[in-house]
Amino acid sequence: MIEKWNYFVYDLCEAKKKDVDEDSFHALIETQLQHLGWAKFKGEICHKQNIHLGNSNRIEPDILIKKDGEDEFVIEVKRPSHKQIKKDVDQLLSYMRILKLNVGIYIGEYIEVFYDMPTSKEAVSVMKVPLEINNKYGAKFVEQFDKENFSQESIVNFCEERLQEIQRQNSLNEIKESLIADAQTQIADSLRPYLMDKYGSSFSEDEIKGMLETMRFTASVDGSKPESKVVVPKSQPKPKSKSSLIKCFLTRNADAKGLFNPTDQSLTVLAGSRINPVHLDKISPAGRKKRDILFAKYTEYRNGERTVKEDICFDSPSGAAQFCVGGSSNGWCQWKDEDGRELNEYRINDGTRKSESRFDTNRVTDPRKFQLDFWTKFKNKTEATGKIPTLQTPQPHNWYDVRIGRSNILLNLVCNTQKNFVGVKLYIRKPAVDKYYPALEARKDEINRALGCEPKWNANPSAQDKTIALFYQTDLTDPQKEEKALDWLVEQTIIFYNVFSEEVKGIN
Fold first, then answer.
1. CATH class for domain 2-150?
2. What contacts 24+ positions apart, CB below 8 Å, involve 457-462?
3. Which residues pair with 457 in a beta bridge?
4. Among 158, 310, 324, 165, residue whose Cα is nearest residue 249
5. What are the φ/ψ torsions at residue 21 (nearest 5 degrees)?
6. Per-position pLDDT tens, the chain of length 508
7. Can you tell me the distance from the alpha carbon of 81 to that of 104, in angstroms, rounded to the nearest whole number?
8. Which top CATH class is 367-505?
9. Residues of the chain with CATH 3.30.1460
10. DSSP run (H or E) holding 451
11. In the chain, where does the domain assigned CATH 3.90.1570 lie?
């Protein structure tokens, strides 16, 4: 990719040396974008397209890139001698939000990629590339924005990964700054146990300490510039391990795991939990604000999913449920223990569980191990058919995703070890719902005939994401029934894949 970057940037470097005006630089950038596969004659590179907003307002982004008629990313252009100001970034962000785009590019004295994080008030810079030959970040830039590789899903994944890289670099920078600020104490304290271990048989600790006090240690940076700093919030401390803590799960609009403390009635949502990435329509303003704050501090967004990266302790199961579900929720009913019992069973002062209710005890004893084995078998069986070209690596989750070639639309398979069923769903995320779901619903009868069944359409009307789902009830603790469930799931997944991959391609 270095060679492609050099081919892309060389003329931009020459234009910078000559200090060309903005219009000339603008025209040159459009020419260079064609080296990345974007075709002007196909309408993929739009020059100052006039976009009307209502009756009287309009916008004219400098360059708008389209693919198959869909807006993909927008570029704000300034002459190469221009020094970027906040107004330039604000202008780019306004275009991104009006056009509902995740990513925008500033090109002037350098190239800078901005990402509109779902929980951020401002666009976040994820990469800044100087206009120079043989730049490693330039190679990453052309790799991501080359037409052949570009997709909304891949660019969001790239931006999220870049944010994590920057955050890790920030942590290293903090360690470096600490060493520089107090090098004498840091280095001497670190050397003392090493010297005691090596020379302790010959010298006393006081002698070694005295020797270190006669030495002067300093630290300095090598002059290299760190990457842009992103503030990483401190996480809440994890709860102390207690034998009385109760493992629990929440599956409404989420796949969350928690630890319930029956003594103080608090609930800790555990790192790795998947939660609803959007707010429900009826969430209160205060609930929305609180959830946005928690998003920014304790979660990360990747592959269209929002995952908890640090344990979070809530005063009650309902507070934890609202965070996970996206709106008002009775956590005492939504959270279930490992045996499928509602936490309401533990809602008494002494922390003991009620015993009057009876529950089915036919449950998988180790759900995570079972799920990993189940999805491994599923992948092997499906690959053997040769009907689906790409399958992801199995993980110990109750879900497994299969891509069908469109951003924000996928097959979401489920294996529920608590309620003993498996299923396959066409899952349409919010950004694609308005375009695709009505078009599919208009062909509901034809699609049902092609599937050979009548799946559940829009199983959760209150959710902003939409699904078309089919389920199979079984007993996953019975190896023979598990095998039948696997065969059913492989067969139905292939049918859903064939039908819906063709259906979504036909929607313009």
1. alpha beta
2. 459/425, 460/253, 462/280, 462/281, 462/282
3. 468
4. 324
5. -80, 170
6. 889 999 999 999 999 999 899 999 999 999 999 999 999 999 999 998 888 776 667 888 999 999 888 899 999 999 999 999 989 998 999 888 888 888 999 999 999 999 987 666 778 899 999 999 999 999 999 999 999 888 888 888 888 888 888 877 777 777 766 666 666 666 777 777 777 777 776 777 777 777 877 777 666 666 544 444 433 333 344 444 444 688 999 998 899 999 998 877 889 999 999 999 998 887 887 788 888 889 888 999 888 889 999 999 988 898 899 999 998 888 888 899 887 788 877 775 433 344 333 334 566 777 888 989 999 999 999 999 999 988 999 988 888 999 998 888 999 999 988 778 999 999 998 888 889 999 999 999 999 999 999 999 986 676 778 999 999 999 898 999 999 999 999 999 999 999 999 999 988 7
7. 20
8. alpha beta
9. 367-505
10. helix 444-451
11. 2-150
Which tokens is 346 given?
């533990």
According to DSSP, residue 342 is labeled B
Number of H helices, E strands in the chain: 14, 21
Q: How far is C-alpha 436 from the geometric centre of its chain's CA atoms?
A: 22
Helix (H) or strand (E) holding 489: helix 479-505
